[in-house]
C-alpha cells in the first residue's frame, strides 16, 4: 500500500521533497501553499496527476486528505507550529531543517510524536551521503581510536538576491542566520560523528556583509564534547564570489578523514593505522558530484522514513537528532550574545531571544 503523502510549502527546497516522493512511489494526494501559482508550477514540473488537490490552508488539508506522511517545507519559523498540528492529526513527518527555531517547540514535537505514535524525521539528508555513511561506519567500528577533534567548515556565498526571493530569510522570527540556515547540516554531522553529547560551547557571531538581514553571516565556535574530544565550527555566507566548500574533518589517534566538495560529498583524505582498506579505492568508490549543495540524500531519507512507518521503527534521522543540531546552533548564538561559554544541555532557547543583536 502506497502511503498518502502531502507537502506543505512549495518554495525553494520543496522540489527535492516532491522528487523523492515520486521516486519512492508515494501516493501524492495534496500540495499546500499560500500562493496557488507555486502549487501550479509544482504540478506542471513533476507532471503530477489531476487528482492532486491544492490547498492554501494546511489544517483543511489535514482534515480532508488525512495524509499518512507530510513533508514540511515552509519557512523555518513555521515548522514547529505546523508539525504539532500534523502530529495531532496523526500524520508522520519529514521536517525540513531546522526542526524548529526554539528548543521548547522541538521538545513539544518529540513528546507529541511519542504520544501519538507517529514517526518524525528531521531532514538532515547529508547523513545519507555516501562519503558520510563511510565515515560513520569508521566511527562506529572504532577505527579512529580515541577521537581527538573534528572541524566543520561551511564556506558559502549568499547575496542580496537570495534574501530578496523570500523576505523571511535572515530574520530572527522565521530563520536565523548562516549557522541556522546554511550551516546546520554540517553542524549536525560534526555533533553526530563526535559522540553527540556536549559539555560546553564558546561562540562568536557577526554580521559583516549583509546589512539587509537581521542575523549573522559569520559564526565560529569551539565545542567541548563529553568524551573529551573537541570541535571547531566555521560557517559563513561571505565567501567571494561563490560557494567554495563544505568540509568535515575527523581526527583520531589512529585515523584521519576529510570529506570535502561543495557539500561534504567527496572523501579527500582517508588514512587509518589498521590499513584495512585502500585509501585511493575508498576515495573513488564514495565520490559523488551532485548538481547542487542539496546533494542526493533526500531519496534515501524518504525511503528510510517510509520503511520506518511501515515497520514501526525509529527513522535513521530522528526528531531528537534535529533537536541536537538546533541546540548546538542556539548555544553558539547564546554564547556569542552573552560573551561567555554555555553549558549543555539547554532546556530553553529560541532565535527570538537574539532579536536586535546586530541592529545598526
UniProtKB/TrEMBL annotation:
The organism of origin for this protein: Filibacter tadaridae
InterPro entries: Gfo/Idh/MocA-like_OxRdtase_N (IPR000683), Gfo/Idh/MocA_Oxidoreductase (IPR052515), GFO_IDH_MocA-like_dom (IPR055170), NAD(P)-bd_dom_sf (IPR036291)
Entry keyword set: Oxidoreductase
Pfam families per UniProt: GFO_IDH_MocA, GFO_IDH_MocA_C3
Keyword Secreted: no
Enzyme Commission no: 1.1.1.292
Domain (Gfo/Idh/MocA-like oxidoreductase N-terminal): residue spans on this chain: 3-122
GO MF terms held by the record: 1,5-anhydro-D-fructose reductase (1,5-anhydro-D-mannitol-forming) activity; nucleotide binding
Lineage: Bacteria, Bacillati, Bacillota, Bacilli, Bacillales
Protein name from the UniProt record: 1,5-anhydro-D-fructose reductase
Name of the gene this protein is made from: afr
Amino acid at each position: 500500500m502506497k502511503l498518502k503523502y502531502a507537502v506543505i510549502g512549495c518554495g525553494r527546497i520543496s522540489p527535492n521533497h516532491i522528487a523523492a516522493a515520486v521516486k519512492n512511489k508515494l501516493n501524492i494526494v495534496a500540495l499546500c501553499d499560500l500562493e496557488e501559482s507555486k502549487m501550479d508550477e509544482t504540478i506542471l514540473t513533476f507532471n503530477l496527476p489531476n487528482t492532486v488537490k491544492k490547498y492554501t490552508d494546511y489544517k483543511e488539508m489535514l482534515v480532508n486528505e488525512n495524509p499518512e506522511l507530510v513533508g514540511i517545507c515552509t519557512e523555518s519559523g513555521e515548522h514547529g507550529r505546523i508539525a504539532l498540528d500534523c502530529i495531532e492529526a496523526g500524520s508522520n513527518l519529514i521536517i525540513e531543517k531546522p526542526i524548529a527555531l526554539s528548543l521548547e517547540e522541538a521538545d513539544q514535537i518529540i513528546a507529541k510524536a511519542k504520544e501519538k505514535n507517529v514517526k518524525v524525521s528531521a531532514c538532515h539528508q547529508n547523513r545519507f551521503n555516501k562519503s558520510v555513511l563511510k565515515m560513520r561506519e569508521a566511527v562506529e567500528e572504532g577505527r579512529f581510536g580515541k577521537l581527538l577533534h573534528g572541524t566543520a567548515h561551511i564556506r558559502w556565498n549568499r547575496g542580496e538576491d537570495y534574501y530578496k526571493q523570500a523576505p523571511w530569510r535572515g530574520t530572527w522570527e522565521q530563520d536565523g542566520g548562516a549557522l541556522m540556515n546554511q550551516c546546520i547540516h554540517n553542524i549536525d554531522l560534526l555533533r553526530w560523528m563526535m559522540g553527540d553529547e556536549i559539555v560546553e560551547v564558546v561562540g562568536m557571531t557577526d554580521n559583516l556583509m549583509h546589512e539587509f538581514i537581521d542575523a549573522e553571516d559569520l559564526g565560529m565556535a569551539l565545542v567541548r564534547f563529553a568524551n573529551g574530544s573537541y570541535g571547531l565550527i566555521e560557517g559563513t555566507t561571505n565567501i567571494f564570489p561563490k560557494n567554495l566548500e563544505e568540509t568535515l574533518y575527523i581526527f583520531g589517534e589512529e585515523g584521519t578523514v576529510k570529506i570535502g566538495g561543495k557539500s561534504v560529498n567527496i572523501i579527500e583524505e582517508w588514512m587509518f593505522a589498521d590499513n584495512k582498506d585502500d585509501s585511493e579505492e575508498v576515495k573513488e568508490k564514495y565520490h559523488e558530484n551532485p548538481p547542487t549543495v542539496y546533494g542526493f540524500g533526500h531519496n534515501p531519507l524518504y525511503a528510510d522514513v517510509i520503511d520506518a512507518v511501515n515497520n514501526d521503527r525509529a527513522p535513521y534521522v530522528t526528531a531528537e537528532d534535529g533537536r541536537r543540531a538546533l541546540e548546538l546552533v542556539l548555544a553558539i548564538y547564546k554564547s556569542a550574545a552573552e560573551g561567555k561559554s554555555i553549558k549543555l544541555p539547554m532546556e530553553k532557547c529560541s532565535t527570538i531571544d537574539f532579536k536586535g543583536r546586530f541592529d545598526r
